[in-house]
């Protein structure tokens, strides 16, 4: 054999060895795509949940066409309506009466007629007003009825109407065409205004008494994150007249001084009689307020996936997850809401819904100091924002679209407005390691189902979650992020917040969130119970000369609404629960406990002329008899007339008996926000989250999560590496698959 042949054979041998090594090294690493296992489906009527379903675009269009043809008044599209026009402000689902729904769901009764609630602004009338019509039956309506007087005890005055986008556009045009040109030197030299370089932010409410529609509009540099770029100029506009040509400027504020109008400001500027604080012009990206990352991408953050597919199902508006089922929907004004919430097939709550998000601001600038935002009036559902896959929710969550009709005659779609996902919370729901007597480990992963939407109302983003746990507990949670609202820093501004940038005062404000929780524990009729503790002194039975302090259980029935109304910072029983008539195996009344996590600021003084409009915020918890005529704790009309509130929650509490009645818990959570330098570029969710829990309290005979398929248990005598003993031992086989990540898409910038 010559040398050449030997070298060829040696080369082939090396190549073969290299190929074998590659195969050995990669063996077990080539994973197949994850395979979805079919879910076990309960044999129930899935379409029953449609009684709570949001209106479809076709149904909304039918309502609009019906009203155009049958009201006998000319209706202008709300997107271009003037205050003096008639228009449809919104169309939403009219939720049927609870008794009708329960007869349908539980008693085999007829399906309630499907109806819509249409809110109309009737400005082109001898007596302008807001009128609400119920229109039905859908999908082909043949009737409408005016429900305004029945709901509110009278007509809704026109000045109470929530402000349409078209009216804000009119105000913007008024400022640009009539107000700013009256101070040309000031606007050009101080504001560097070029016709598009300023952004406007509204204050609310609008005045000091019923009938006012006089609003402070604060000016900011029109850059990314403009909310923290105040320029020191604010204008008070009287836009109460339905004739926009009669709108006028009532006051002007600049850098701590008030002026009659822009003409007076211009004269003072030209004559050198004002203190000018010129703001450095920010680049278009906002500079310090830009959310563009300051660091390049690096190692990918952790992702979660479902190796055998989702363990929840969604059909129409019905969600099932393990022992849970519920229907979901989105109110135009109040946002995310759930109905017919069941665990192990038994209803525990009829309705759980967001009611209101309130912010009360302090400042030494007029716009800031007069702001009490009631975001339901702007529309928590209307301003639900498209979710970004992988950031707002896990990448592989299920994303659902929402259709709504507001500020226009045509329905719109918010793509990916809801997400639903199961989340491994990375900690045990329960566990124990035993090294005494017997040796074993038992535990259960805390995996929960999350339903989420995010509403962006102006500067703030509210992350709304409803979370379902395997032990029968449910949580309502909200996290706040977005930009802090700010004022121009001048004078004694630091009494009202912290300096965030050169001219930016982050203004102190409160957040209050109100929920409606209609629990039906073991049936519709419930009572409210309070358990707590006291220490008692007792002689030690085995040693009478010594005393022992021992905690003792206290029990009380809260039998009237007054007893069940707990003021914001007052002491409340630590265990408070809705009790059923039935008992569990151990003789205790079955119940669901309400547990609130909140660090709210102070409520506005009750002596305030507008306090009754937000009187729900007096209470951390108030339990009342459920009444169809008290469907919500507030009204969209309270924002623009808080001095004569259309709905005053304080009137719900009138000392009626609440023993063995259909009850509703009104829960308020909140937090105080004093913006600080770390709120730049914007506010983080960490530490800005509040919630409430609904927890079984003697409702079951034992923890229902013991029946979860996710449980882990093994002893020292077992082979815990065997799959049949320990499912975790199977993960290398069952979870070694490649998840299917769909391409990233985003539709949030379409149809703006």
UniProtKB/TrEMBL annotation:
Stated name of the protein: Amine oxidase
Enzyme class, UniProt record, top EC level: oxidoreductase
Modified residues (2',4',5'-topaquinone): 460
Keywords: Copper, Metal-binding, Oxidoreductase, TPQ
Cofactor(s) of this protein: Cu cation
SUPFAM superfamilies in the record: Amine oxidase catalytic domain, Amine oxidase N-terminal region
Cellular component, GO annotation: plasma membrane
Organism field: Formicarius rufipectus
Chain segments annotated as coiled-coil in the UniProt record: none
Gene Ontology BP annotations: amine metabolic process
Post-translational modification summary for this protein: Topaquinone (TPQ) is generated by copper-dependent autoxidation of a specific tyrosyl residue.
Signal sequence residues: none
């Amino acid at each position: 054999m010559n040398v050449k042949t030997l070298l060829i054979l040696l080369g082939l041998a090396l190549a073969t060895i290299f190929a074998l090594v590659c195969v050995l090294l990669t063996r077990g690493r080539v994973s197949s795509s994850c395979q979805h296992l079919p879910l076990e489906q309960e044999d129930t009527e899935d379409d029953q949940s449609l009684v709570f379903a949001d209106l479809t675009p076709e149904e909304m269009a039918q309502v609009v066409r019906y009203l155009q043809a049958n009201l006998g008044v000319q209706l202008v599209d709300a997107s271009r309506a003037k205050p003096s026009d008639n228009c449809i402000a919104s169309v939403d689902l009219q939720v049927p009466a609870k008794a009708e729904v329960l007869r349908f769901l539980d008693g085999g009764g007829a399906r309630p007629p499907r109806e819509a609630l249409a809110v109309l602004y009737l400005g082109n009338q001898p007596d302008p007003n807001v009128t609400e019509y119920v229109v039905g039956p859908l999908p082909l309506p043949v009737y409408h009825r005016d429900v305004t007087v029945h709901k509110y005890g009278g007509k809704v005055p026109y000045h109470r109407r929530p402000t349409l986008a078209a009216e804000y556009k009119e105000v913007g045009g008024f400022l640009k065409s009539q107000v700013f040109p009256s101070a040309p030197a000031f606007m050009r030299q101080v504001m560097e205004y070029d016709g598009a370089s300023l952004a406007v932010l509204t204050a609310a409410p609008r005045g000091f008494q019923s009938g006012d529609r006089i609003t402070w509009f604060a000016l900011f540099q029109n850059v990314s994150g403009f909310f923290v770029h105040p320029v020191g100029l604010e204008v008070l506009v009287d836009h109460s007249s339905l004739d926009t040509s009669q709108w006028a400027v009532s006051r002007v504020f600049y850098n701590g001084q008030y002026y009659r109008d822009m003409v007076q400001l211009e004269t003072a500027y030209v004559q050198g009689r004002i203190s000018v604080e010129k703001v450095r012009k920010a680049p278009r990206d906002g500079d310090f307020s830009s959310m563009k990352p300051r660091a390049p991408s690096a190692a990918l953050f952790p992702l979660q996936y479902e190796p055998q597919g989702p363990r929840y199902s969604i059909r129409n508006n019905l969600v099932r997850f393990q022992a849970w089922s519920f229907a979901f929907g989105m109110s135009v004004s109040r946002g995310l809401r759930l109905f017919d919430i069941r665990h192990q097939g038994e209803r525990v709550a009829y309705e759980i819904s967001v009611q209101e998000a309130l912010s009360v601001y302090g400042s030494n600038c007029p716009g800031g100091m007069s702001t009490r935002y009631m975001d339901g009036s702007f529309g928590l559902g209307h301003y639900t924002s498209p979710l970004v896959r992988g950031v707002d929710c896990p990448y592989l969550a299920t994303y659902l679209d929402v259709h709504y009709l507001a500020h226009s005659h045509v329905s719109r779609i918010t793509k990916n407005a809801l997400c639903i996902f199961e989340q491994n919370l990375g900690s045990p729901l329960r566990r124990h390691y035993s090294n005494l007597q017997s040796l074993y480990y038992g535990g259960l992963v805390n995996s929960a189902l999350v339903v989420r939407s995010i509403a962006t109302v102006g500067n703030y983003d509210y992350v709304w979650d409803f979370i379902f746990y395997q032990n029968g507990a449910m949580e309502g949670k909200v996290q706040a992020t977005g930009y802090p609202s700010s004022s121009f820093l001048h004078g004694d501004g630091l009494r009202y917040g912290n300096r965030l940038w050169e001219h930016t005062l982050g203004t102190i404000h409160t957040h209050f969130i109100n929920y409606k929780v209609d629990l039906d524990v073991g049936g519709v009729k419930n009572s409210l119970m309070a358990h707590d503790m006291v220490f008692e002194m007792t002689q030690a039975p085995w040693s009478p000369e010594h005393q022992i302090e021992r905690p003792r259980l206290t029990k009380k029935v809260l039998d009237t609404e007054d007893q069940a109304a707990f003021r914001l910072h007052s002491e409340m029983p630590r265990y408070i629960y809705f009790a059923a008539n039935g008992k569990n195996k151990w003789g205790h009344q079955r119940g669901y406990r309400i547990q609130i996590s909140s660090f709210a600021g102070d409520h506005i003084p009750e002596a305030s002329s507008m306090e009754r409009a937000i009187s729900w915020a007096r209470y951390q918890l108030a339990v009342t008899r459920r009444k169809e005529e008290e469907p919500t704790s507030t009204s969209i009309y309270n924002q623009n007339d808080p001095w004569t509130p259309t709905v005053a929650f304080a009137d719900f509490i009138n000392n009626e008996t609440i023993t063995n009645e259909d009850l509703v818990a009104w829960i308020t959570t909140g937090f105080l926000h004093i913006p600080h330098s770390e709120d730049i570029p914007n506010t983080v969710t960490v530490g800005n989250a509040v919630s409430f829990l609904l927890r079984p309290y003697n409702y079951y005979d034992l923890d229902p999560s013991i029946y979860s398929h996710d449980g882990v248990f093994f002893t020292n005598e077992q082979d815990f590496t065997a799959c049949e003993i320990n499912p975790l031992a199977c993960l290398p086989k069952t979870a070694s698959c490649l998840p299917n990540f769909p391409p990233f898409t985003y539709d949030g910038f379409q149809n703006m």
